[in-house]
Specification:
The chain is an alpha/beta fold. 36% of the residues lie in helices and 21% in strands. It has three domains: 10-50 and 68-84 and 231-312 and 455-509, FAD/NAD(P)-binding domain (3-Layer(bba) Sandwich); 109-223, no CATH class; 315-443.
């Protein structure tokens, strides 16, 4: 989709990159009255909001689970339901079937979840209720609101949060690892512990890293997550419609090759065909290497900025996807009926030790595709995802980028399919698509080495340090240049924070007031 672009005009803002954060930033600014040009390298906007259709099967090759769908400011501020966005919220969020016939089912009803845990451990069921009771106010009062506010330096943030009892509790767990968090709350059963750690491990997190402040998000918000009806690209389409309906312009199939400076100020972007577009402000949603080292050019950076950008680290773990179009039914073999109703089913592991040992093999490059995966049948929850009489299966596994994917993709997919068949009755496979991490990088270059969050989540690359302490406030040391992609605070995973904050800061520099205010 390409809106009409006049190639000699000057804009208030040029947004580089048409992924979710670029679209959010551009849509807010256009609605606030700015003249906006969004430039996208690919033939369509959306980035990780990617839904490809094959013979009536709609494959979400990237993002599918939207953790912040109901709290993201853009949802209300931009009136996205009026532009066709609909979410589906499966009641059974996650299921962990075990070989002895028992299953852990995490649902949107706390009492049901506690009762499910109690079938395995009464003690851990009580621990979960207590933990959930603390996590919810942490999320409501701090974690969710702070996602849509500019980050403070670490010490200042700790002081501000610590002024309340629940804030002090959040500070206490923030420096813990996921393993230490569940230790802190007293969980003892190896199956329950495996399940609770899987909510972090499924995204490639190292379970020993001190990222405890993220644990409530990846547990509670995954249980509350929604699926976009019609596929994740429908969110992209809604944001696109907001943008163009407010006069915004989109130039796709156009790779930005240079950000031009004049007197040290960012003043224009140049695209691959040689055209140059000028703007008062430029907002890049690309990763730091692309924005500063490639587009601005390392030679044009101050020593401080270059030294802040160059150490950027990519995620060590990434994801392998297997997508299946099925003629007939897809049914869990497990006796617990709610396993078949779950949005996500985890297959292959029984205990916490199994999980740790599996992740050690992942890091060593020796894990097989038949060990552990999480599985979703999108068409169970949204019939538009597959043709009549058919189902769509989506499986993902944690892997390394460097695993010989050019030659080993099909064999790894065969192993994953073997694991699925051990737990699920499948009809006839009529479509099969493997999606290794090399394909992630090839499609979305901002996700270097398959880095789905645009860069590693470590304490040196989070909060006030994301992407670095010079750029985490959106404005950069280069006048006129702003950054607001997933490599900025508060990170990736379709949370909408970087794009919202980008629009807010750029808008303020232009003297504009953003619509809404639902994040205040």
């Amino acid at each position: 989709m390409t809106a009409t672009v006049t190639k000699t005009d000057t804009y208030d803002t040029i947004v580089v990159g048409g992924g979710p954060n670029g679209l959010i930033c551009a849509a807010y600014l256009a609605k606030a009255g700015a003249r906006v040009l969004l430039v996208e390298r690919r033939h369509e906007t959306g980035g990780g909001l990617n839904t490809d259709e094959y013979y009536g099967f709609r494959l979400n090759l990237h993002a599918i689970y939207h953790m912040m769908s109901d709290v993201m400011p853009a949802y209300g501020d931009l009136a996205l339901p009026e532009f066709g966005l609909r979410y589906v919220y499966p009641h059974v969020a996650c299921a962990f079937p075990f070989e002895d016939g028992k299953a852990l089912c995490f649902t949107k009803d706390l009492d049901e979840t506690v009762a499910s845990i109690a079938t395995i451990s009464d003690h851990d069921a009580d621990c979960f209720r207590r933990m959930w009771g603390e996590f919810q106010p942490m999320l409501d009062q701090y974690i969710i609101p702070l996602t849509y506010q500019l980050p403070l330096p670490v010490v200042d943030q700790v002081v501000e949060i610590g002024q309340t009892e629940i804030g002090e509790r959040l500070n206490e767990i923030s420096e813990l690892s996921p393993v230490e968090v569940i230790d802190e709350y007293g969980f003892t059963d190896p199956r329950v512990r495996m399940a609770l750690l899987s909510f972090s491990a499924m995204w490639g997190f190292h379970l020993e890293d001190p990222l405890g402040y993220l644990y409530p998000v990846y547990l509670c918000r995954m249980i509350e997550a929604g699926l976009v009806k019609g596929g994740s690209h429908r969110l992209s389409s809604a944001l696109y419609r907001v943008l163009v309906s407010n006069g915004g312009e989109v130039l796709d199939d156009s790779e930005v090759t240079r950000i031009h400076l004049d007197g040290g100020r960012a003043v224009a972007v140049e695209v691959a065909d040689g055209h140059r577009f000028e703007a008062s402000t430029i907002a890049s949603t690309l990763n730091p290497e692309q924005t500063f080292l490639q587009l601005v050019g390392a030679e044009n950076l101050s020593n401080d900025l270059r030294h802040a950008v160059e150490p950027w680290e990519w995620e060590e773990r990434t994801l392998f996807g297997l997508h299946l179009g099925i003629e007939g039914e897809v049914t869990s073999r497990h006796p617990e009926p709610r396993v078949n109703e779950a949005m996500i089913t985890f297959l292959g592991l029984e205990t916490e030790d199994d999980l740790h040992e599996h992740l050690e093999r992942v890091d060593a490059g020796t894990a097989g595709g038949d060990e552990w995966l999480h599985l979703t049948v999108p068409s169970h929850h949204d019939r538009t995802m597959a043709p009549a009489g058919h189902e769509l299966v989506r499986a993902e596994q944690v892997v390394l980028y460097d695993e010989g994917w050019d030659s080993g993709t099909q064999a790894f997919g065969d192993q994953a399919l073997e694991l699925i068949r051990r737990h699920v009755d499948l009809g006839r496979i009529v479509l099969r698509r493997e999606y290794p991490p090399t394909h992630i990088e090839a499609k979305l270059r901002t996700m270097k080495r398959g880095s789905i969050k645009h860069g590693s989540y470590t304490n040196l690359q989070m909060g006030f340090n994301r992407p670095n302490d010079l750029c985490s406030q959106v404005a950069t040391p280069i006048p006129g240049l702003f950054t607001c992609g997933a490599s900025n605070y508060a990170g990736g995973m379709i949370i909408g924070g970087p794009g919202y904050l980008g629009a807010k800061v750029v808008g303020e520099s232009l003297g504009l007031e953003l619509p809404g205010g639902s994040a205040e």
